[in-house]
Design goal:
Layout: H1 7-28, E1 38-41, H2 58-64, E2 70-73, E3 80-83, E4 89-91, E5 95-98, E6 105-108, E7 116-118, E8 123-132, E9 135-139, E10 148-150, E11 153-162, E12 165-169, E13 173-174, E14 178-180, E15 184-193, E16 196-198, E17 205-206, E18 210-212, E19 215-224, E20 227-229, E21 234-236, E22 240-242, E23 247-255, E24 258-260, E25 265-267, E26 271-273, E27 278-281, E28 284-286, E29 293-295, E30 300-301, E31 306-307, E32 330-335, E33 341-345, E34 355-356, E35 385-386, H3 415-440
Parallel strand pairs: 1-2, 2-5, 3-6, 4-7, 5-8, 6-8, 7-10, 8-11, 9-12, 10-14, 11-15, 12-16, 13-17, 14-18, 15-19, 16-20, 17-21, 18-22, 19-23, 20-24, 21-25, 22-26, 23-27, 23-28, 26-29, 27-30, 28-31
Antiparallel strand pairs: 32-33, 34-35
Helix pairs in contact: 1-3
Amino acid sequence: MVRQPSRFITLLLRMGLSLLLCLILIWSIPDQPVQAATLLVTKTQDTNDGVCNQDCSLREAIAAAASGDTIRFSTDLLDSTLVLNGNSLVVDKNLTIIGHGAKRLTISGNQQSRVFHIRGNTTVTIRGLRIQDGFVSQRLDEPGGGGILNQGVLVLEDIHLTGNRVVDDGGGAEGGGIHNDRGVLSVSNATLNGNIVEDSGESGCFGAGISTTGNADLYNVTISENRAVDNGNWCFGAGIDHTEGDLILNFVTIVDNVGEVNGGQVFGGGISSAFGLINLKNTIIARNTPQNCQIVDDPDSDGYNLEDANTCGFPQTTNSTDLVNSNPRLDSLKDNGGSLLTHAILENSPLINRIPNGINDCQAGILADARGAVRANGDNRGGSGCEPGAYEYASSQMPTGVTVSGVQARPVFPLYPVAGVFLGALLVVGLRMAFSRLKTDKSAF
């Protein structure tokens, strides 16, 4: 008589076959790309225990994030200031950091460290933050950047940089607000004011608002009330210092930046440039001291620029749309709605409706200024044309400072670990069942 396989052996065979089929199914699934996750900052304290969970600082979120992830902030942090612990936030991976708006969330260096350092070979977007009170004492062969040092590809949107400072300690003082150190910089809808670079009499100072040695593109940006302080040597560009790469300005206001001379020289209260291309359109340069521009090669103009003197090299041909020696009639820097400080355009300004609809990027009802106010759409939404600079005259259609909905961190798990856990659990359950049967049925053998 042929002996039949025992029930225990049959059970094991069935389990093995099921496990094999599951493994074949998993192996047949094509590789899935790892999806980006969202990490949520939940507190203002700058701690770092290496974990981003329900108790997560911005520093912990940056450390825990994988390349391609997004960092957001809990709505509990609206109108809060995150004060750093004396060390800058170093970003060495591709990240997107989204705040609650430049009026509603602040990151402060507390005058002890720069705020952000974006390393090379990274692409980073930072949106909706005020970045203030960064500080760097710049030694020889070290970079500056009081608010931000960028060595990668950096996109800034809805950003207010204020009160940041770099002091020369033998290496010059570069970029009170931003130092773009051979990186790629794109800034839109932003204000840089009250930033400082200060010479110590050793190596000079460069770009209180922005110092750039790489490509930089500015759109809807106000650069105002920044100071380059000479103490016996020289300083360049209280607003912007540009020494390499391409500098492109569109709808930019560069006003009231000051170079303070204390025994040396200051070149370019608004813009200084030694090398590289400068392209300007729809831009205002006015009321900067000691002069608006110190530019070695005349910039390329795409028209509709205005200067209140004649130092920037705008063309003076009969068909030029640039204005020189013309008072723009701008108010002081203040809150004119939206999330950023701006210079309002006053009545009887030559800027009003200067750019015709459909010309030079003026798109009625589609384009907006730095505050988010609609340009050239009539009925208290801008006039018949657009104005140069970051502010649209007679436009009252603006968003509030921020619109925030609740956000939740959503971890994303790859398929293989989940499937492995499932199969492991299945195997454990099966073995427990088999051995339980074995104890009660000795005929299994």
